[in-house]
Amino acid sequence: MAKKSAVNRNERVKKLVKQSAAKRQLLKDIANDESLPLEERFDARLKLAAMPRNSSATRIRNRCEITGRPRAYYRKLKMSRISLRDLGSNGLIPGLVKSSW
Fold first, then answer.
1. Are 39 and 33 in contact (CB under 8 A)?
2. N or C, which end of the chain has less CB nearby within 10 Å?
């Protein structure tokens, strides 16, 4: 089980990313538009840099929904390999057969 503080921090980051996604995208579009004047594009870059770092989507860490484990994460299932194995062994995941030899 991961530390609750790490899981909660990640949830706060997700919330902040969701709140500021539209503004961040607008500033990125302005900054990357070659048809606009250089000063306006530079001003958009400064505003983008002034935004909180945690409002960037790259700050989100994929974590297991069951345990909060940050590594060995399956995106399709939103869980770690360990949780997948446990639930598969108990027969709680349809279509998954754990082989052993």
1. no
2. C
What pLDDT is recorded for position 100? 73
The CATH number assigned to the domain holding 19 equals 1.10.287.1480
- The tokens for 25 are 């995208």
In angstroms, the CA 68 to CA 24 distance is 28
Residues 6+ apart with CB under 8 A from 43: none
Pair 1, 19 in one domain: yes
Q: CATH number of the domain that 92 lies in?
A: 4.10.830.10
50 and 3, same domain (yes or no): yes
Chain mean position to CA 100: 34
Overall average pLDDT of the 4-21 stretch: 95
51 lies in the same domain as 76: no
Averaged pLDDT for residues 6-32: 96
